[in-house]
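Repro:
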Amino acid sequence: MPGSPLISVDELHELLEAGRGIRLLDVRYRLDKPDGRADYVAGHLPGAVYVDMETELATHGVPSEGRHPLPSHETFQEAARRWGLDDGDAVVVYDDYRSVAAARAWWMLRGAGVADVRVLDGGLATWRATGLPLETGDVAPDRGSITLHQWGSGISMDEAAVWPQHGVLIDARAAERYRGESEPYDPVAGHIPGAVNLPADAVLDGERFAAPGVIRSAFESVGATAGTAVAAYCGSGLTAAHTALAGAAGGLEVAVYPGSWSQWSNTPDRPVATGARPGRWHPA
């Protein structure tokens, strides 16, 4: 397994030029443009297969499940086979916005037993800035035969509620949403009592991730140090996976609460804290 969950544009280009058989996945997704297929078709890394975040990395149910509930094992495995993945493949995932959607795919594939899966640091923007070629049109690979592991799909809402009792629970949303001053997507503003705030910007340097030492310092600033049980949540579970990816790049294991604030705030009687402080922990 690679030492880092990230791969640079230069390293990826060298591996592709050497014919190393890297499987490329393009997870083109944004909140304001959830269907990224048209942008993918207009230009993507040569050989990259489009991944539909909304249907292959998530499902849709009632509000109390959150905005991006995880798909079933069967749905996810079928998607991975459509992408052409076989057991033992090396996989590189990328997107066109800060690696947030790519991190979701990385986290799910890693949890399902894919040993060699990395995220292209800087994504499509850095590839383009380097002057490397893009390909247009769709890529339809031969069907793969990968067997994904059944996995625990992160931590539950009840586990998130008590996490501050024994570890550090990170809220990866913007500070104003954590404080409860703004909530553009969910019915209640604020944060899970006991959670600390570490916005995604703290671990980034533009489109790329910050250096490992900078990432470790950012985590340490909220008490997330080596040997501490760390978990993360965000609005809908995507940026939480990004925080887990950053943690892995900095040498920390970070659990993910996939339901995140969209699930918590749509569940009656869940306590809510506001303001800049974590707030008092108490049972939900």
